[in-house]
Amino acid sequence: MERSGVHDEAVAALRRSYAAVPPGEPVRLAKRTSNLFRPRTPVRTPGLDVGGLTGVLAVDPDARTADVQGMCRYETLVDATLAHGLMPLVVPQLRTITLGGAVTGLGIESTSFRNGLPHESVREIDVFTGAGELLTSTPDGEHADLFAAFPNSLGSLGYATRLRIELQPVRRFVALRNLRFTDLDALVEAIGQVSATGEWDGQPVDAMDGVVFGPDEAYLVLGTFTDDAPAASDYTGQEVYYRSLPGRRTDALRTYDYLWRWDTDWFWCSRAFGVQHPVVRRLWPRRYRRSDVYHRLVRLENRYGVAARLDRWRGRPAAERVVQDVEIPLDRTAEFLRWFDRNVPMSPVWLCPLRLREPAGAGSARNWPLYPLRAGELYVNIGFWGTVPIAPDAADGDVNRAIERTVSELGGHKSLYSDAYYDRQTFDRLYGGAVYRAAKDRYDPDHRLTGLYEKAVDRR
């Protein structure tokens, strides 16, 4: 069967599974794995069958586009596009993030200072809505309101079955320059300069991110696509990528390895499982050094609480999970990092500059009402993932609430893949409540899909 026929059958299976959900019951995906950190109440009703929506339908090297099914993992998508010397405009850091997930839940990576967020390279989407309709949504068509509201809707308006995305050419290697900074203001100034000029020290910059180990030690990593590299590093073996930054002024990776440089150790979170210890690393099979393996271990811990019980037995304080990505305007980034260093005992943290994309000929960036970043403004995504001790006079969630308040005070935004504590009024103000409700009433009038606030805050 041709790919179009396979896709049609997958959509038919999706429709049948929707019809099998009893009337009045909530509709959810029949999907066991996730890159989200929001616990939710389990349901026993049948889920939507998306098992056939995991592939790449077509790559058009001339038009530099790809038609991709919604549940296609980026590792599958990258394999298909690199074969043509192309890659998606933004490839999120973890292999098992799906294209549909990155669009409806936001994604980011080191090309975001040039190319924005993954949903900004989407040309059209087929959305299976909460009403059981399959609609093709484009920026200017009949369902342009759905196209605009889909990013950051977290599956509360519908699920993408097919997306057409733009691609960009790449070369064999990524040459890296690791710039060390001992002053956060100088770091921020350098980010602004690279973003404004697209270069550093006379050399072009195609990718940019960074790591902050502390206020007096930070690294800005500048990547340039190239076909010529004297030698390429390998961080899937004994070496750990983020640990290489202090010791190397320059580096190079195969483009494939660069795209997944953070996945092997889940940034630095693999250290919680001992995987970065040289002995454990030699014994831990390479094929299991992947973010989805670590994520499964975290889910097991959340379910059974073995480590938490051991900590209590050892007399250690209870811990609060602090797993967040926030976008801070560039001119407030140093201020936030200093606040974070004083108030949240956690390091390192990840930096990833971004701005909304202005497509060629468009003249301005498109508005995305459910995650309303300001057009023309440069932000820095700051990611931090771990736990902090709960102080004797504090409660679980206090640190996350303080982060939310500080992000808002600094004019920033917070992604919703993890814990959120906003009240309904604040949430609607920050995440396009009026636009969302209009789209919800049109495309899921019976509210079969769990609402955005309920998913993000109530954790249903």
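(ticket continues) Second input and output from the same batch:
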Amino acid sequence: MDKVVDKAQVTDTTVLQVKGLKQYFPVKKEKIRQEKQYVKAVDDISFAIEKGTTLSIVGESGCGKSTTGRAILRLEEPTDGEILYKDTDLAKISKRQLKKVRGEIQVIFQDPFASLNPRRTIRKMLNEAMEIQQVGDRQNREARMLELMSLVGLPPDSLERLPHEFSGGQRQRIGIARALSVNPEVIICDEAVSALDVSIQAQIINLLKKLQKQFNLTYVFISHDLSVVRHISDRVMVMYLGKIVEIADKKDLFDKPLHPYTKALLSAIPTTDLDSQRKEIEISGDVPSPINPPSGCRFHTRCPFATEKCRQEEPSLQVKMNGSDNHLAACHYADEIFANS
């Protein structure tokens, strides 16, 4: 029997808790009397993150993973819900209060060139970030900048150079240094390695893991690459069309996925094992419109196991009979379909 639990399981070490988060974007009306419509990019999701761990958010383009990260940072104003950081609701505080908190919650963006000011040296960018957050005096900041270059594996003279003088991987190291400069506790990594070559991806991932261990950092790692996610994550959250369909510890999710969508994503990971008996689950069709999502289970239009119940009744995110207490899935038939798979 399924066991319904709090979708954001909170403990004494929880650093960030999201409750009932919604992010809707209004669609421009084509006719005067047309009913107002919204793109439901994120639609009532809840989760919690433990300090010093990595929660990865995965899913196809348009599933809402990057919008979730932007909403946590308040780069987008959430439509509804709570974003609790140290008992402070980031969704409700003023911009002045938010400015102070932003030193503790930083972001590394996808494009390591577009996220850096092309007209400013690395020194000026790092110094500006620390000045805004009032980190140390001038002498302390100078020492901190040299320390940051060492931490991310760049020579000290990098501080005097402009972004275009660096490779993509080096620019992402600078992005990491900028995030670290204000001594954050949480870092949102929004597709932080997807624009890099595979060999450079591995270097950046290893650097992020090293820094996490050294400074007890908490990561929200947003990615579509499950091979990378497998390497860096402690816990994985799978999203589809604005909803969480599965969330579990990394080993549980990769070894025993309980949702057909997760199973399909994992079966599509390339493998070099010629003797692998892995059976690929094919999902046909395109992702439905987030303006008018399907009734019932949002995945039913593409799911090979869908029934009438799936079309009519939305499944809740639950602990399944065959999963651990930390493994939740939103599927009516997860136990029947994948119990012995």
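Agent notes: The chain has a mean pLDDT of 89. The domain at 14-104+220-269+280-338 is CATH 3.40.50.300 (Rossmann fold). Closing as not reproducible unless the customer responds.
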